[in-house]
Amino acid sequence: MSGELKILKKDTIFSSLTQADFELLRSLMDKQNIQEGEILATRKERATRFFILSSGTFLISMNDGKSAVMDRPGDFIGMELLSSKGEYISTVIALENGEVFAIKRDDFLDLIQEDSPLAETIMLHWNSFLEENFPFVEQKEFAGMEYHY
Amino acid sequence: MYGLQAIAMNNGWAISVVGVSIVFTGLMLLSLSISRIHKVLDFWDNRNNIHIFRKKSQERSEPIPLPFTEKNKASARQFRLLIKTMDDPFSLQRLLHLAEISGIERPHSSLCYLIKARIIQPDHQGNYFFNREAFDRFTS
Fold it and tell me: Measured between CB atoms, does A123 come within 8 Å of chain B?
């Protein structure tokens, strides 16, 4: 099994997808090595990518002084945590050397806007993940994803 | 004796009423079950989202026994001084910014180390607090 699939199959928002869905998601992922202090996304810039954490620790700095730290392989850094209306609302900084899989924002939104079991599964797990780990982050409704994220 | 009289004499009416009641009760229960079956299917489909069925997911950052070198202890003490100037709980991004402008060596990885050692912990509302106990344990 490839490294990407091993990470996705762990206890993540993607872990209950079918093999075909994994392959589809994997085709959108682009591996990147990240250095300590490197900035992956800057607040107020145009949102172009979401990230799946492979290794390392990342600080997500939100616009009200709040922060989130993500360090678990398979953690998804995107949607409400990262962007709104096509713009980054948080800055993501690497606290140590690591690796991420970047997915183009537009590709990911196309994926989850479809009326499919894949989209439904991802959104259900994402909402649970946010509620459990980041209850202070406001969750968006399903409709109008292009606009909301 | 024949006819309706015979039925009445042998509790025929009571038996009929009971029988009809049983059949109609059964039919009613069956129709209610069928009308609710979609909810059972929804529950089964989303069982992973129900807390009692959910696997206990690994804690986000389990305490890792970290070796604390003199350098780590020194940077922990520097961060401690910065945290003393801040609110409690404090903003982690602000702490990183202060660490950068204060000239702390490798502020990102130093901060990361303190988070992994649980000297700095989240309050689950977007802010962080200083764990004095963990600090004393690692820096003594």
Answer: no
Residue B61 lies in a domain: no
- Token readout for A106 is 């537009």
The pLDDT tens digits of the residues spanning A77-106 come to 988 788 888 899 999 999 999 999 999 988
Report if pTM > 0.80: no
Question: Given an 8 Å threshold on Cβ–Cβ distance, is A94 in contact with B108?
Answer: yes
A95 shares contact with chain B (CB less than 8 Å): yes
Is the CB of A135 inside 8 Å of chain B's CB atoms? yes
**What residue in B sits closest to A126 (Cα-Cα)?**
B49
- Which of A17, A55, A59 is most worth mutating to test chain B (most B CB atoms within 10 A of its CB)? A59
Q: Is residue B62 part of a domain?
A: no
Do B30 and B79 share a domain, yes or no?
no
- Where does residue B108 fall: left (phi above 0), alpha (psi -120 to 50 degrees), or beta otherwise? alpha
**3-class state of residue B122 by DSSP:** strand
Asked if the Cβ–Cβ distance from A67 to B60 is below 8 Å, we say no
> A94 to chain B: which residues are within 8 Å by CB?
108
Task: Provide the ipTM.
Answer: 0.84
Distance CA B118, CA B134 (A): 7
- The domain A3-133 is classified under which CATH number: 3.40.50.2300, 2.30.130.110, 3.30.70.2740, 2.60.120.10? 2.60.120.10
Residue A140 C-beta-side C-alpha neighbours within 13 Å: 17
